[in-house]
Write a structure and sequence with these properties.
This protein is an alpha/beta fold and 200 residues long. The protein has one domain: 3-Layer(aba) Sandwich (Rossmann fold), CATH 3.40.50.1240. Helix content is 34%, strand content 16%. The protein has helices spanning 33-39, 58-71, 94-110, 123-140, 152-163; strands at 7-13, 51-54, 76-77, 145-150, 180-185, 191-197. The longest helix is centred in the middle third of the chain and has 18 residues, at 123-140. The model has no long low-confidence stretch (mean pLDDT 94).
Length: 200
Amino acid sequence: MTTRAATVIDFLRHGEVEGGLCLGAHADATQSAIGARQVDPWARAPWRWAGIVSSPLGRCLAAARALGASLGLTPRIEPRFREIGFGEWEGRPWTELLREHGDALFAFWACPGDHPAPGGEDYAAFDKRVWAAFGDLIGEARGQHWLVVSHAGPIRVILRRALDLPVGRLFDIDVPYGSLARVQADETGAPVLLWHRSPP
């Protein structure tokens, strides 16, 4: 009897960006020089990805293309791995949002499903689109080791399910810039967290 190889997906958060702005599904920014250095060490890790998938936003594509170039891979863009939409908060400085909308921000961080950003994406819809993208990727990458370059929000969606946490614990999951989370799909397609590390 032949044992099928496990399907392993690494989730990389893009590196640091400039500006201190609220960046969601639409507002974007490029990685800073520090951000590029945070991502670069993963290109020298002792494994080789079979494929790379990226959010369409520039802060992720920069990292995905740099890592892909080192391995001779062209990243495939998957719009469903983009960040959650923050509506009226997008593109505004976090310091300004905390000063003017602090209560609303803390309510969102406590339970995004009950307290979405004004004009922002419904959390249940966000969770559903990320989970659907993960399921489709598991089917595509079956038995292989792939990389997804995404944002803190989508990575928390996957890790929350892997850790079996309620939505109210979402922001207990720390996803630093340049961090890499490795999950393995079990026989049902559900993610099992193997490890989660900051940049080497």
